Amino acid sequence: MATGRTHRPATRSRGIPEATVARLPLYLRALTALSERSVPTVSSEELAAAAGVNSAKLRKDFSYLGSYGTRGVGYDVEYLVYQISRELGLTQDWPVVIVGIGNLGAALANYGGFASRGFRVAALIDADPAMAGKPVAGIGVQHTDELEHIIESNGVSIGVIATPAGAAQQVCDRLVAAGVTSILNFAPTVLTVPDGVDVRKVDLSIELQILAFHEQRKAGEEAGPDGGAPVAATRAAAAVAGEGKGPDGDVPAVMPA
Ligand SMILES: NC(=O)c1ccc[n+]([C@@H]2O[C@H](COP(=O)([O-])OP(=O)(O)OC[C@H]3O[C@@H](n4cnc5c(N)ncnc54)[C@H](O)[C@@H]3O)[C@@H](O)[C@H]2O)c1
Question: What is the value of ipTM here, to two decimals?
Fold first, then answer.
């Protein structure tokens, strides 16, 4: 048994580094916005700025996809959307189950962004018998007794856990035993999973704690080292050093478990 994905390899199949894979959704989000505005082509600099990534890194990332753009023209937006979607496995439909339909689970079920990105909410599962049959986001909640049957009959490989922390490991074990191989965990606990199962953890309170750290540091800069150092100079130095909201400052809220 392995805890989380600490043993994760640095590269995936076809030699695309994990760091590149982690940036592909950022490019896709920026490209989708361009596509919606019917922008036909984009330069690496424009796209890098829109994605919050350094342009040399972007070109290197795209070279792994075999996409080099055309000199003086840039990248074809629609083709790149297709290429990245295909690389991320988004050109196929992914049925997803959400387990734990409380405040968070219901909010996730109601989030329209999953379907538009190829993730179909196939079922909502909760342990509370009083919830069974109740519609949430137009889908009837099913009892956990049905979990294995739901996973198998829908061919579900991705499960979302939004239960209290104390129930998350047991839910995870049942999902995995039923055939789920990827888990998005919102419960504030570290899950133990067998090799071959990917876990991603979302913890907004950790993100807030990181922001609190930066706020504290900014407050320290305002005061200056001796209580009155020039703030602009300190900020400029930080910018040159690539700190703060630099090209890669947009750290996703999802992190390996
Ligand atoms: N990651 C984040 O940023 C974030 C943000 C908010 C909440 N959370 C976490 O998400 C979880 C849910 O929060 P909430 O506010 O929706 O709680 P909630 O109490 O409103 O909902 C929890 C639901 O889980 C169900 N449940 C309990 N045990 C279960 C089991 N064994 N199998 C299936 N369902 C079960 C309950 O019946 C309930 O409907 C908590 O662990 C919370 O800490 C995380």
Answer: 0.98
